[in-house]
Give the backbone structure.
Amino acid sequence: MFTQNIDGLDFQTPLPVDKIVNVHGSMGIIKCEECNETCPVDEFNIKVRNNIKDIYKIDPTAPEESTPIPCEYCGKNSLKPGTVLYGSRLPDRFFECLSEDFPTQVDLLIVAGTSLTVSPANQLPSVVKKTAPRLIVNREPVGRDLGIEYGPYAVRDIYASQDCDSVFLYLASKLGWIEDLKEHIEKMPPLSQQLLKDFEEKNEIPGFKNS
């Protein structure tokens, strides 16, 4: 799963961590900009609370003045969430997985919830092999300039113009995965939980007929 999300929510899914490729890095990872070593997130959060002043005056236990948080490996004050700043190089893992997965290993490409305007992530639909279908799940058509086709003459491209939750719940129902989804309902956002519960009660999904 190649994702442009940086909020770390991807790591809360049952998906194995080694299957997640954070194109623009992630706030769920703390890294040193100097030596590239990582720091456990919980440990970093404690250091922030102990070392960094609260400019909003909400936390009465926060220090009056901030002090640096050095990296335990190199000693430099360069620890930060592992997100990619403007002008910085994308993670090596993105390029490694790109060369490993594309263009021969992908049999189906699902593009979900993106404008396909940010490079180089938006190039993935272009480098997938020609025989691989591309499912576009988005509220409006995207990627026409990248060769994605819409309308009655589209051959390999399928467009689903509904919310991502609704589309993937529909697919899960057709694939017989509803019971698997229910096992993870407590980890879902409230609206996703309600959508799944409504489907269980009414056997229908908004925007889909005869589901």
Summary: DSSP finds six helices and eight strands in the chain.
